[in-house]
């Protein structure tokens, strides 16, 4: 009998664009992802804005038969408000990750991830791990899922990648803001080398190609020669 896959589902595809009515503002919301593991754990990554609670609850129920209390772990890839707004729905979760900070209520976990070490935080053994990927913010994390319906290794990467177009045009992620662009370039290459499929912070998921990997290698190497 084959072992059941870890299922990765994009609940909402994110976006970021200028506000057509206000030149001083932009419109943005994150890509929100549900991970259903082969051992029965449910993990949500990036929870939209605080105004999206009703539609997030409806999507979980209508598409997957889940209630907020069925979510075991919440991972926010970083602390920006469009990635954290509906955390309040998931008060039954064992852990909430705010980037590399791991907590439940007023309990904050002292672990290698929160101390800035490179060791991954295992959510389901090696099947699902949280890793530090600093750049967009210095506290950013990504979630790696192995053995999935979307490929052997899926990276849910938050704003490490804005959307697939920023591989060809890095000004997209640079203009979106980066607390450490050099680190972000390195982490982008690290993730794309490891993953077969990537879910970015503000766009559709995409299958990784060798051409994409080569472009990111060139961008890292080019920056190192400056």
Automatic annotation (TrEMBL):
Catalytic activity reported: a ribonucleotidyl-ribonucleotide-RNA + H2O = a 3'-end ribonucleotide-RNA + a 5'-end 5'-phospho-ribonucleoside-RNA + H(+)
Matches recorded under InterPro entries: MBLAC1, Metallo-B-lactamas, RibonucZ/Hydroxyglut_hydro
Location(s) in or outside the cell: Cytoplasm, Cytosol
Recorded superkingdom: Eukaryota
Main location: cytoplasm
Pfam families linked: Lactamase_B (PF00753)
UniProt domain Metallo-beta-lactamase: residue ranges: 29-202
SMART domains assigned to the protein according to its UniProt record, in alphabetical order: Lactamase_B (SM00849)
Function in brief: Endoribonuclease that catalyzes the hydrolysis of histone-coding pre-mRNA 3'-end. Involved in histone pre-mRNA processing during the S-phase of the cell cycle, which is required for entering/progressing through S-phase. Cleaves histone pre-mRNA at a major and a minor cleavage site after the 5'-ACCCA-3' and the 5'-ACCCACA-3' sequence, respectively, and located downstream of the stem-loop. May require the presence of the HDE element located at the histone pre-RNA 3'-end to avoid non-specific cleavage.
Subunit structure and binding partners: Homodimer.
UniProt xrefs under PANTHER family: METALLO-BETA-LACTAMASE DOMAIN-CONTAINING PROTEIN 1 (PTHR23200)
Name of this chain's protein: Metallo-beta-lactamase domain-containing protein 1
Organism field: Bactrocera dorsalis
This protein's encoding gene: LOC105227065
């Amino acid at each position: 009998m084959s072992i059941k896959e870890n299922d990765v589902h994009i609940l909402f595809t994110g976006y970021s664009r200028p506000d057509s009515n206000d030149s001083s503002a932009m419109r943005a919301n994150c890509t929100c992802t549900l991970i259903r593991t082969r051992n029965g754990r449910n993990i949500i990554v990036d929870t939209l804005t605080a105004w999206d609670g009703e539609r997030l609850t409806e999507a979980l129920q209508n598409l997957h038969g889940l209630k907020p209390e069925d979510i075991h772990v919440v991972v926010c890839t970083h602390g920006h408000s469009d990635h954290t707004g509906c955390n309040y729905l998931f008060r039954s979760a064992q852990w909430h990750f705010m980037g590399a900070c791991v907590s439940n209520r007023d309990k904050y976990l002292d672990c290698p991830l929160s101390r800035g070490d490179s060791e991954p935080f295992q959510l389901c053994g090696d099947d699902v791990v949280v890793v530090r990927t600093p750049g967009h913010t210095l506290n950013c994390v990504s979630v790696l899922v192995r053995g999935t319906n979307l490929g052997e290794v899926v990276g849910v990467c938050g704003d490490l990648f804005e959307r697939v177009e920023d591989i060809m045009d890095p000004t997209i992620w640079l203009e979106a803001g980066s607390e450490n662009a050099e680190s972000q370039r390195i982490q982008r290459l690290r993730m794309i080398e490891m993953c077969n499929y990537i879910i970015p912070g503000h766009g559709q998921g995409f299958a990784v190609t060798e051409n994409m990997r080569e472009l990111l290698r060139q961008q890292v190497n080019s920056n190192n020669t400056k």
